[in-house]
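Morning!

As promised:
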Amino acid sequence: MQKLTHYINGAHVEGTSGRFADVYNPATGEVQAKVPLANGAELDQAVAHAAAAQPAWAAVNPQRRARVLMKFVDLLNRDMDKLAEALSREHGKTLPDAQGDVIRGLEVVEYCIGAPQLLKGEFTDSAGPGIDMYSMRQALGVTAGITPFNFPAMIPMWMFAPAIACGNAFILKPSERDPSVPLMLAELLEEAGLPKGILQVVNGDKEAVDAILHHDVIQSVGFVGSTPIAEYIYATGCANGKRVQCFGGAKNHMIIMPDADMDQAADALMGAGYGAAGERCMAISVAVPVGEDTADRLMEKLIPRVEALKVGPYTAGNDVDYGPVVTAAAKANIERLVQTGIDQGANLRHRSRCKPSGGWA
Amino acid sequence: MVDGRDFNLQGYEDGFFVGAHLFDNVTKDMDIYKYEIFGPVLSTVRAETYEEALGLAMDHEYGNGTAIFTRDGDTARDFANRVNVGMVGINVPIPVPLAYHTFGGWKKSVFGDLNQHGPDAFKFYTRTKTVTSRWPSGTKEGGEFSIPVME
């Protein structure tokens, strides 16, 4: 059994809280690793290292900070296959989709290489007699992010790349479902030249989240996940004087007008509705055809496409459209909601079921 | 039901696989419409008119992303301008903004003022300091005792 760690001050550190969570391989249902769940004392250590390292990092000029990110992009490309494999093994999404997860994060890192330009301030010459006025953008200090299971590479990079580019230290509390890729990203950034303590990974659950939200030194918290937790983190973080940005749930509608290209619309709904098993906050979960005729034509196109979807493990490579969902609990919740749809009178036009033999019906 | 796949799941019987589901004739009061399922389940709500379709997206508590498929530019433009959702696709089903724009929804999909990545991220991760600076030629003019105003 693989035992995962935290990544604190440039080193893999074993958990000391005594609490661990199971990390599954969603394709097989097996527990493949244990991830430590940090307590407040473990977070305190990370914060202390971050606070000690951050002033020197903020004093590095923006161009040199950007060069670390340039090197990081190279390393992400070098290790792309390895990252995607680790991501698929814990998350369940297909390998091409896992690569997309890394690449969409990488693109944010590329944007952040523009930090020297983006951080330039404003200047007013001669605002009064002999008076100049200028504004500058300074780092916050120690920042933190709490990221979801569904994009374990992209969303951490959305947060830590700009945080680091701006001269902050960043503490990442990734999802305990798929923590390996975030740990690998921290290693790669150090290989790229990031000083120790600037990006640390503290694994954990609600205990670590609450410790972040109540820590006096942490200046900002970013979060992506479900709406009830987003609301909780926003309210608690704000009450503790932090800068907070939280992103929650979604129910994305796609309207199909009578004049739409129906093949194009149906193809689009396949990827947007079923890609990554629907575990995306930008998934389309509601199709809204306008007019009965449009709806009938859309259904005619959709049903054979849904029937043809290939479901399977990431190890099948490009031969799979989507993989398993992340946990047995997630699967049970989906099945529960599907049953409410049937009970409440929705018309189930297609359902693929897993047979005990391992095939589909 | 017809099984269009021939993928063999032998050896993966204990995996957390969920088959694809397609619902038709879904209505606003159903749980599958109200709640985020986060699974391979697509619900179809039939609307009679464009206004009714727009109203569905507008009235839902979440406002992350949305899309419209049409060949009519005027309809697409009207939709993009009026819908109260943060990210809009026109003949693009998943309108995730690129890195140099910002990502963020509206309504119950977001709490906070700034979006993810793009220029907003540089605002979120920095604080502004504004300096008013004066370098007098010397002390010959003496001190000022009234509040300075712009001359």
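The longest strand of chain A covers residues 131-139.

Hope this helps with the figure draft.
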